[in-house]
Specification:
The chain contains 21 helices and 22 strands. By secondary structure, the protein is an alpha+beta fold. Among the domains are: 128-161 and 166-212, Calcium-transporting ATPase, cytoplasmic transduction domain A, CATH 2.70.150.10; 327-340 and 459-576, HAD superfamily/HAD-like (Rossmann fold, 3-Layer(aba) Sandwich); 342-457, Calcium-transporting ATPase, cytoplasmic domain N, CATH 3.40.1110. The strands form four sheets. A seven-stranded mixed β-sheet has the order 10-22-21-20-11-18-19, with helices on both faces. A six-stranded antiparallel β-sheet has the order 2-1-3-9-4-7, with no helix packed on it. It has a six-stranded antiparallel β-sheet with strand order 12-17-16-15-14-13, with helices on both faces. β13 and β14 (401-406) form a beta hairpin. It starts with 6 loop residues before the first helix and ends in a 10-residue tail after the last helix. The model has no long low-confidence stretch (mean pLDDT 88). The protein binds adenosine-5'-diphosphate (ADP) and magnesium ion (MG).
Length: 637
C-alpha cells in the first residue's frame, strides 16, 4: 500500500535534508580548517541548528513555562544546548536532527496504520437512495444520508454502491462482496427474500431493499463503533510501558545530573576539562532519557495487530483481549450454530392422536417469535401462512424451549427436560436427532401431542478448525451443549474434541466455564450469541461468530468473527501470539540498547553521536517491527 506524506511531513523532510546537508558540509570544513576560531563555527552550526530545531526549542520553552520539565522536547533541547556549551557544535545539531527523523518516522508509521484501519472504515456508507411515493402515487428516488432512513423504507442499491442499511431484498438479483467485513473475497449471489448487510458492496445488479433497522443499529454502525473504541481497552503490556515511562525518564535525568556534578567534585572542582568530560557523559544520558521507542512501538503493535485481524474479518474489541487470547490454553465451544450449521432440517414428525399437519402447525406457531435455529427450521418446514394473531404470551425458556398461548390453550414446545417440568407423558424417539416435544395444557390437564425430529449438520470447516487449534498449542477443546447426550457425543467424537458436556442450561454452561477457570485454564468461549451472552462474558475471552447482522453477538463478545467460519479462531490465536511476540521483542530490544548506551556513556566509551544514532535507530527498528503485526499471513486460512 502506498502512503502519501502529509504537507507537514513533507515540510519536515525538507528541513531534515537541508539541515543534514549543512551539517555534513560544516563538519567537513571544521575538520579541514580546524585553525578557524570557534565563534565562526558556532555561527555556522547555528544555521542548521535553527532550521531543524526551532520548533523543538519553542515547545521546550513553552513546556518550561508550564512546568513540564521531563518532556522529551525539553530534554532534547537541554542535551543540544549542553553540547553547544561544551563546544560540540556538530553533536548539538545531530541530536535535534535525529530526534526529528525519529518523530517523522513515527508520524508516518502511525499515519500508515491508521490508514489501513481506515480502509476498514471505508465500509461507512455515505448515502442511501430512498424511494418516496408522492401524493399522486408516483415514485421518486431521493439521495439522503443513511441516518435519515426509517425502518421499513424501500431503498435502491445500484451496482458499485455500498449497502447503507441492513434489510431484505424485495426486487432484483445481484452479487454482493462482503470482503470488507469478512475477508471473504468470493462474491455472494442475492435474490429477493435474502438479507443484505450494511457495509458490504453491491457488485452487479440494481435491487430494492426493505430496511430492517435504522442506521445507528445497523451492522456497519456497530462495527465502526467497535473499531473506534478498541484503543480504550489497554493491554497489560501497554500499562506496563506507561508505568515504566513514568519512572524511567526522571531516573535517567537524575542520573545525568549526578554524573555531571558528583565526579568533578572528587576529581577536581576547578578543572574545566574534568567538567566538560562529565557534562558530556551526562548529555549522553539525556539523549537516551526518552522511552519513545517503547511508548510508540508497543501501542502501535497492538493497533496494527488489531488492524491486521480486522482485514480477515476478525474484530477485536481491544488490545487486552488480544493479549488474553495469546495466553489461552482452552477453547470452549457452544455446539449449535458454532460447530454445527445451526440450520436444522425437519426429518420427521411423530404426532400423538392428532395429524402431522396439526402438530407442525402448533409447533410453528409457538416458535413463530423465536430466533433460535430450531425455531427457524420448524417455521421453515411449515410452508403455509402462519397466523401470528392466534399466538400470545410467548415465553422462551433458554436451553429448553418455548411456551405460548395458542387459541386460548397453553402449549409447550421443547426438550425432554421441559416436558418433565410440566409433567407431560412423553417418550423418547428411536430416531437420531434433536427431538422437539410438543404438549398442551388445557383446563389443568397436560396432554402429550408428539414430537418433531430435527437434524443439524456439522460445519465443513469444524474438524479442521479443531485440528488447527490443537496445532497452535491449545491443549483443551471443550463442547458445551443443551442438546442430548448421544448427539453431543457423536459431534465430539467426529471433531476429536477433548471434552464435552451435554444437557446443559445456559447457566450450567457458565458454571462449567467457571470450573475450568478455577482450575487455572485460560479460557476462550466461542458461541453464536444466541442465548449464550452470559458465558461469553464469563470466559477470559468471548468470541461470537456469525455476527453478520446479529446484534447480541456484537455487543456481548470481546472478539467478533464476521462470518461463521470456525477456522478463524485458530487464525485469531495466531495473530494474537504473533503480536505479543513482536511486543516483547520491542520491549526487550529497546531496553537492552538503552542500557548498553547508558553504561557505555557513563564509562565515556559512547559519545553523543552513538547515543543519538542508537536511540533513534531503536525507535525506527521497533516501529518497523510493529508494522509486521499488520501482515501476519498465517500461511493457512
Ligand atoms: P446449544 O447448547 O446446542 O446451543 P441451546 O442451549 O440453545 O443449545 O438449547 C438446548 C436444547 O434446548 C436444544 O437442543 C433443544 O432441545 C431445546 N431448545 C432450546 N430452544 C428451543 C426452541 N426454541 N424450540 C425447541 N427446543 C428448544
Ligand atoms: Mg446456542
Amino acid at each position: 500500500m502506498k502512503y502519501k506524506m502529509t504537507r507537514k511531513q513533507k515540510k519536515m523532510l525538507r528541513r531534515i535534508i537541508i539541515a543534514a546537508c549543512l551539517l555534513v558540509a560544516f563538519t567537513i570544513i571544521k575538520v579541514v580548517f580546524s585553525q578557524i576560531p570557534w565563534p565562526v563555527f558556532l555561527a555556522l552550526f547555528l544555521i542548521p541548528y535553527v532550521i531543524i530545531g526551532y520548533d523543538v526549542i519553542r515547545t521546550a520553552v513553552i513546556n518550561i513555562i508550564h512546568g513540564q520539565l521531563l518532556d522529551e522536547k525539553f530534554l532534547m533541547a537541554i542535551a543540544s544546548i549542553g553540547a553547544i556549551a561544551t563546544g560540540e557544535f556538530p553533536e548539538a545539531v545531530a541530536v535535534i536532527l535525529f530526534f526529528q527523523v525519529g518523530e517523522l518516522f513515527e508520524s508516518i508509521a502511525v499515519g500508515r496504520t491508521r490508514k489501513s484501519v481506515a480502509a476498514l472504515m471505508d465500509i461507512r456508507p455515505d448515502y442511501a437512495n430512498l424511494i418516496i411515493t408522492d401524493a399522486d402515487g408516483l415514485e421518486k428516488e431521493e439521495t439522503v444520508s443513511p441516518e435519515e432512513v426509517n425502518v421499513g423504507s424501500i431503498i435502491v442499491i445500484k451496482p458499485g454502491e455500498k449497502i447503507p442499511l441492513d434489510g431484505i431484498i424485495t426486487e432484483g438479483t445481484t452479487t454482493v462482496n462482503t470482503s470488507a467485513l469478512t475477508g471473504e473475497s468470493l462474491p455472494q449471489d442475492m435474490a429477493p427474500g435474502d438479507k443484505v448487510i450494511s457495509g458490504t458492496l453491491n457488485l452487479t445488479g440494481v435491487c430494492r431493499v426493505r430496511t430492517s433497522g435504522i442506521y445507528s443499529e445497523s451492522t456497519v454502525a456497530r462495527i465502526l463503533e467497535l473499531v473506534e473504541n478498541s484503543s480504550e481497552n489497554k493491554a497489560q503490556a501497554e500499562n506496563f510501558i506507561t508505568r515504566f515511562a513514568h519512572w524511567y525518564t526522571p531516573v535517567v535525568v537524575i542520573a545525568a545530573l549526578l554524573l555531571a556534578v558528583v565526579p568533578p567534585l572528587f576529581l577536581g572542582i576547578a578543572n574545566g576539562e574534568v567538567w566538560s568530560t562529565w557534562v558530556g557523559r551526562a548529555l549522553v544520558f539525556l539523549v537516551v532519557s526518552c522511552p519513545c521507542a517503547l511508548v510508540v512501538s508497543v501501542p502501535l503493535s497492538f493497533f496494527s495487530g488489531i488492524g491486521g485481524a480486522s482485514r480477515e474479518g476478525i474484530l477485536i474489541k481491544g488490545a487486552n483481549y488480544l493479549e488474553a487470547l495469546s495466553k489461552a490454553d482452552t477453547v470452549v465451544f457452544d455446539k449449535t450454530g458454532t460447530l454445527t450449521k445451526g440450520a436444522f432440517a425437519v426429518d420427521d414428525i411423530h404426532p400423538n392422536e392428532i395429524s402431522r399437519a396439526e402438530l407442525l402447525d402448533i409447533a410453528a406457531l409457538a416458535e413463530s417469535y423465536s430466533s433460535h435455529p430450531i425455531a427457524v427450521s420448524v417455521i421453515q418446514a411449515h410452508h403455509d401462512h402462519l397466523d401470528k394473531n392466534r399466538v400470545g404470551d410467548v415465553r422462551e425458556i433458554a436451553g429448553k424451549g418455548v411456551c405460548a398461548m395458542i387459541d386460548g390453550d397453553s402449549y409447550y414446545v421443547g426438550n425432554g427436560s421441559l416436558m418433565d417440568e410440566i409433567g407431560a407423558a412423553w417418550h423418547e424417539c428411536h430416531l437420531t436427532g434433536t427431538i422437539i416435544h410438543v404438549a398442551r395444557i388445557s383446563s389443568g390437564s397436560c396432554e402429550y401431542l408428539g414430537h418433531i425430529i430435527v437434524n443439524d449438520e456439522i460445519k465443513a470447516e469444524s474438524e479442521e478448525a479443531i485440528e488447527e487449534l490443537h496445532k497452535v498449542g491449545i491443549d483443551k477443546t471443550v463442547m458445551l451443549t443443551g442438546d442430548k447426550e448421544d448427539i453431543a457425543g457423536n459431534v465430539a467424537k467426529k471433531l476429536k474434541l477433548t471434552e464435552y458436556y451435554a444437557k446443559l442450561l445456559p447457566e450450567d454452561k457458565v458454571e462449567r466455564v467457571k470450573e475450568l477457570m478455577a482450575k487455572g485454564a485460560r479460557t476462550v468461549f466461542v458461541g453464536d450469541g444466541i442465548n449464550d451472552a452470559p458465558v461469553l462474558a464469563t470466559a477470559d475471552v468471548g468470541i461470537a461468530m456469525g455476527a453478520m447482522g446479529s446484534d447480541a453477538a456484537i455487543e456481548s463478545a470481546d472478539i467478533v468473527l464476521m462470518d461463521d467460519d470456525p477456522l478463524k479462531i485458530a487464525k485469531a490465536v495466531r495473530i494474537a501470539r504473533k503480536t505479543m511476540t513482536i511486543v516483547k521483542e520491542n520491549i526487550v530490544f529497546s531496553l537492552a540498547v538503552k542500557a548498553v548506551i547508558l553504561i557505555l556513556g557513563a564509562l565515556g566509551i559512547a559519545n553523543m553521536w552513538l547515543a543519538v544514532f542508537g536511540d533513534v535507530g531503536v525507535l525506527v527498528l521497533a516501529i518497523l517491527n510493529s508494522l509486521r503485526c499488520f501482515r501476519i499471513i498465517s500461511g493457512k486460512k
